[in-house]
Amino acid sequence: MSQQAQQMLDRHRETLDQAVEAITTRGYWSPYPESIKKYPEEAVKGAPARFEALLRQPFSLKTPAVAGQVGAEVSPYGFELGVTYDQPEQGALITAMQAAMPAWRDAGAEARVGVCLEILARLNALSPDIAQAVTHTSGQAPMMAFQAGGPHAQDRGLEAVAYAWQAMSRVPAAAKWVKPQGKHDPLVLDKRYHIVPRGIALVVACSTFPTWNTYPGLFASLVTGNPVILKPHPGAILPVAMTARVAQEVLEEAGFDPCLVSLVPDSAEAPVTKALALNPAVKLIDFTGSNAFGEWLECNATQARVFTEKAGINTVIIDSVEQIKPVAQNLAFGLSLYSGQMCTTTQAIYVPKEGIQTAEGPLSFDEVAGALAKAVEKFLSDNDRACAVLGAIQAPATAQRIEACRELGEVLLDSETREHAQFPKARVHTPLLLKVDASQRDAFSEERFGPISFVIATDSTAHSIELAREVIGEKGAITLGAYTTDDAVADQFERLAMDVAAPLSLNLDGGIFVNQSAAFSDFHATGGNPAANASLCDQAFVTPRFVVVQSRRHAPVEA
Amino acid sequence: MSQQAQQMLDRHRETLDQAVEAITTRGYWSPYPESIKKYPEEAVKGAPARFEALLRQPFSLKTPAVAGQVGAEVSPYGFELGVTYDQPEQGALITAMQAAMPAWRDAGAEARVGVCLEILARLNALSPDIAQAVTHTSGQAPMMAFQAGGPHAQDRGLEAVAYAWQAMSRVPAAAKWVKPQGKHDPLVLDKRYHIVPRGIALVVACSTFPTWNTYPGLFASLVTGNPVILKPHPGAILPVAMTARVAQEVLEEAGFDPCLVSLVPDSAEAPVTKALALNPAVKLIDFTGSNAFGEWLECNATQARVFTEKAGINTVIIDSVEQIKPVAQNLAFGLSLYSGQMCTTTQAIYVPKEGIQTAEGPLSFDEVAGALAKAVEKFLSDNDRACAVLGAIQAPATAQRIEACRELGEVLLDSETREHAQFPKARVHTPLLLKVDASQRDAFSEERFGPISFVIATDSTAHSIELAREVIGEKGAITLGAYTTDDAVADQFERLAMDVAAPLSLNLDGGIFVNQSAAFSDFHATGGNPAANASLCDQAFVTPRFVVVQSRRHAPVEA
Q1: What integer pLDDT is reported at residue B559 of this predicted model?
Q2: CA–CA separation, A461 and A355 (whole Å)
Q3: In B381-451, at which residue ranges do the beta strands (DSSP E only) sit?
């Protein structure tokens, strides 16, 4: 191992050990503080100016051959970034990355882990800057951009490294195989086992969580020896480019070819993802985005292992509650956070049309729906707080979808545009909440990306469960929330979760929300329903990224 | 857990623990004796009569709905088996298997491991009978049919159980998540984690190794909670049917639906595999067989995880040797064993046209090729020994291929038909060994299944390595052998093995052969080249067969 890689590993060995322990015990843990107060004041205060200094000019990365320039990012807060990026020539890039692979492979798992942990540590230090880039590409509000774009994304990257390290370190470097032969001398073979990467890895990033959804695939593939092409969404290149730069710097310092992590940006007008995904050299693909494209990859990029995070019909079922107010407040926060643009945001809320029981007496369907609408309205009544929670709508199409969906049901709470104090052109919209009957399945059983949710009147909780089973079975879900005060019904929810392979959040009415997922403890998505074919992270997310190549020979006869 | 499943687990706990230890340390280990002498005399002696008693009548298994009868197996030793099997109605079968799945899932990993280990133990006791069925379907000679069809197949099944148990037991059943909140009380969640199967698993068996290649997929899928459809090759149903019967008996005794392991036999005239493979309920497919069908599955059954063992151009490179004789003897045995019908048999043997160095002086190319031809000839000169090693040719097409390939090069050793003492109609053929030039790439770089091999004259060992790199890169290989007395060249072979992801056997000249692969120590295939997309067994073989579904709720406030 190079001295540099060894030093990197030594520096982060304790973090690695703790991460492996965390994925095993799955309690709360993170090495990357989520409170911005824990970061150096200068780093935090200087971030906006450093972001400003990146605008309206080229952002340079190392690449073997440049084919052209792209870059037309527009902040959802209302201004053009004006950053341009080199687009590498694909053939030359893949040739260079393949040439770089053997040295990265032969460095061994420990060296690769050291390098990856150093990249993560430097990304962590860069969190305030990355938060700026995430804010002005995804539209996330600053605090969320900091947490989800910085430490939480780094957590997910580290989690992938920990899983991969656990898997790789379970393969011994060597073994002596001694087979008894009765009265004769035993047969003795010396065996060696090598971790061998699959080939070029492609990570297709999304516009809403350009780092959080990218780091697991990036680090899982890289640490197992595969060179990684980062293909950012044309609307959110900068956070991925900043990540690539950090990775390239660390790789180079450790004595490796920086092109082992390469950025291939494109434009909406001339997308390159399909061509990259079908390149025979590409053996691993991580994708976050639409169902249509995810399914296209699953069905067409058959030369590669494809890991997809798509979308589904995230569901909440309300059977009964102790008190409606904290439940409504909890759901209201979840619906408002990042204007419903999380892959975990609830879309379908099933409530029996006869109403529900509470410890404070029965509530009619309309009372439940009204409590929810009122909780959202109240939570967003302070405009500054609203803007700090909602952030901005990433894509104009999402804002248009709010308009288009208004006709799908009876409006319980209408979506409003809001004016952002600092950025008057910001695309800020509050949630749209609609009431529909269970029979209006076309309305609620299609994904409506954005701040659009449905309160659905069902015949009973049994009916709610059956509907959820059917809709999630067909369309998938990344989250499932449920409320009941009845242990028998709770068991039914637990069983539903297993049947449709969706993670269950039961009776959340405090400071935890169905759309939040904690690295090292929560498995994000399961990979077992149509919303995603992979989980962040589990063993299945890392083990297909390498193979074991052995050699064997007769052992020297001992003197 | 049911009392029966618990007893099964208790009975085999030590075997399980040892198997997990074995896959970690990868020394020699097996709980199933490969020597037939270790089995009860009655079991061994009575096997032929028990086999005879199965012939010319229906073989019954449990199934929810019968659509018809199939069965037209013909022993490669020259007689019709006359066994018929129920062919289940697919729709009814899948509905019944899906209905049986939740109870199998909810029983938990320990119960499933107990049941699987009991199935394996009973299969082990049945080894003499299974050997009869393997002999008269695959054509393997009796000793090989016993070892490869019995204990070695059971080893591979147990190995899959051990890997799956290791993976499942790494997921905790529950966790308490405690997130500090500064001066406030911490957020505390109780979490539960469930192992959830993917769905119906399909195992498509082959005619040459109907148990060895079937047990890994069968046990990997079953132990992780998936109901398994066994689809045998129409020419080798009986060994798979006997396996299914044992599995059904044990499942039923343990209180589970026996249809969790179901046989779906078909005929060559009316194959059902494609329809089964594309059934949306089928989520896992294990396949052993032709490249064409394996690639069809990989490209078309995109709703499922597909694990394939296909074929490639198994390769030996000769650079230099201490003594040619033991090397030629070693290779001769490998070429003769089961008449080259192993997926691990060498097809391409690269030798520099200028000859090689040995400790006994230089040898010309023709001397090397001649030594090899002579070693095969001598080894097979005793007809009884020849028949006991060669076995019979499974398919008439393979025998025809020997004829067709004779034209592809200069005949170094011609294939002969042999008469079997006990079975005069047996299809027994000795190996065909051809000499070709490296330029005759079309000859040696297509798979020629059967006892057909090529000694290829290359410009140099560097040229041999380059050719092997290209051919294996394009066509894959399950085995790679190499001979050199030069450590620097050995390093080049080790690097070649990593580059093409083929396991290397270096300088084998004793009682170990390139086409043998030992469970718990040797990774059979790597999954990293076109000959196979999976390895038997590694972590990647088991982890994609289940997902983790979690639930979380606020922890009760402690008094």
Answers
A1: 55
A2: 10
A3: 410-413, 417-418, 428-429, 432-437
**Nearest-by-Cβ selection for A523 from B494, B509, B548:** B548
Interface of A with B in 479-508 (CB under 8 A): 493-495, 497-499, 501-508
Q: What is the CATH number of domain B3-76+86-171+193-310+535-545?
A: 3.40.605.10
Give the span between the Cα atoms of A476 and A333, in whole angstroms: 23
Q: Taking CB atoms and an 8 Å limit, are B544 and A540 in contact across chains?
A: yes
In one-letter notation, the amino acid at residue A406 is R
Contact list in A for residue B105 (CB cut-off 8 A) is 498
Architecture (CATH level 2) of domain A3-311+543-550: 3-Layer(aba) Sandwich (3.40)
Q: pLDDT tens-digit profile of A64-105?
A: 999 999 999 999 999 999 999 999 999 999 999 999 999 999
- Cα dihedral angle (A34, A527, B552, A520), rounded to 10 degrees? -40
Positive or negative: CA dihedral B516, B518, B521, B522:
positive
Cβ contact (<8 Å) for B179 and A28? yes
**Cross-chain CB nearest to A25 (options B175, B538, B539):** B175
pLDDT tens string B368-421 = 999 999 999 999 999 999 999 999 999 999 999 999 999 999 999 999 999 999
Parallel, antiparallel or unpaired: strands B84-88 and A66-70: unpaired
Which amino acid, one-letter code, is at B156? R
CATH code of domain B315-506 = 3.40.309.10
Residues of A numbered 246-285 whose beta carbons fall under 8 angstroms of chain B's beta carbons: which are they? none
Q: What is the pLDDT of residues B521-559, one digit of tens each?
A: 999 999 999 999 999 999 999 999 999 999 999 998 765
Residues of B in contact with A102 (CB under 8 A): 495, 498-499
**CA distance linking residue A307 with residue A539, whole number of Å:** 13
User: Above 60 in pLDDT, residue A559?
Assistant: no
**Closest to A24 (Cβ–Cβ): which among B170, B498, B510?**
B170
Q: Spell out the domain ranges in chain A.
A: 3-311+543-550, 315-506
User: SS3 of B552, please?
Assistant: strand
Mean of the pLDDT values across residues A476-502? 98
Q: Does B538 sit within 8 Å of A547, measured CB to CB?
A: yes
Cβ–Cβ below 8 Å for B502 and A191: no
What are φ and ψ of residue A427, in 5° steps? Answer: -90, 80
Asked if A203 contacts A231 with a C-beta cutoff of 8 angstroms, the reply is yes
Spatial distance between the Cα atoms of A326 and A317, rounded to a whole number of angstroms: 16
Contact call for A552 and B176, based on CB within 8 A? no
Residues A448 and A222: their CA atoms lie apart, in Å, by 34
B173 Cβ neighbours under 8 A, 6+ residues apart:
B192, B193
Q: What are the chain B neighbours of A521 within 8 Å (beta carbons)?
A: 175, 177, 191
Chain A residues whose CB is inside 8 A of the B176 CB are: 27
Phi, psi of B430 (to 5 degrees): -85, 165
CB < 8 Å from A in window 526-545 of B: 526-528, 535, 538-540, 543-544
Amino acid at A481: G
pLDDT in tens, B418-453: 999 999 999 999 999 999 999 999 999 999 999 999
pLDDT in the model for residue B22: 98
Residues of B (32-51) whose Cβ lies below 8 Å from A: none
Structure confidence at residue B2 (pLDDT): 85
Phi, psi of A273 (to 5 degrees): -65, -45
* Predicted confidence band of residue A492 (pLDDT cuts 50, 70, 90): very high
In sequence order, what DSSP letters do the residues of A17-34 get, joined into one string?
A: HHHHHHHHH--S--SS-S
